[in-house]
What does this fold into?
Amino acid sequence: MTTLSRIRIGSAPDSWGVWFPEDPRQVPWRRFLDEVAASGYEWIELGPYGYLPTDPAVLAEETGRRGLKVSAGTVFTGLHHGPAVWDRTWAHVADNAALAQATGAGHLVVIPSFWRDDKTGTVLEDRVLTPGQWRELTTQTERLAREVRECYGLRVVVHPHADTHIDTEENVTRFLDATDPDLVSLCLDTGHYAYCGGDSVELIETYGERIGYLHLKQVDPEVLAGVHAEQVPFGPAVARGVMCEPPSGVPALEPVLAAAQRLGVELFAIVEQDMYPCPPDQPLPIARRTRAFLRSCGA
It folds into this structure.
């Protein structure tokens, strides 16, 4: 077994069914912190802004006494709309980036906005961007990455995501080819990329210098086939269990981690098993089993 010495394993509120700052169906934040530490993880993401304490001193105390460290914050953006949304976007980004910086994190995960509502399935805009919208998406993302680096010292990693405009292999590679490697890196989410038909190992081997961060996730192929056949939106697809517990789904994580290790750089690999909504007692046993599985892979 290869020791994955360059891979830093963590988990996130997402793996506890947390998608929103407040929701009665989500576990309280103290329980999340207790359970993620009990599962054997030492790295976490902040999740939706406002779920964990936004006072840096409180958050540092709460994570520190559990032996936890923060790898990244996360933001959603609609940068293909161009300069008109910049001020609103930056206000949201600045709050997240400031908290991430204060916790010692080095990354900001940037997720494109959905083209259809992830709960209702309502189509919000065309799922295909115009050439002009592509230009705005790439130039505004570069601007965001530059500002985040200069103001907060964080590295922007863009997260391809189901039901967004950066999803398939074609769109991911188009985005990478059109953005500055010195500014924009990728958060490769293995589950989302498989959901949209991509091959994570191939992407790592082809665009290795652009891989700045990993989310570890698997999809259930049978559930996914039904989701695609019925054109189910992402939120209801998650409720169906399209994202499943490793190692029962695809892609196989061992070759993904091995390919990432071969890049020769330090990489975070954060477990994110979408489970919203889920019973409060469901996440902890899954998290423990997943951590044990990743140890068996050398991570």
Notes: The mean pLDDT is 97.
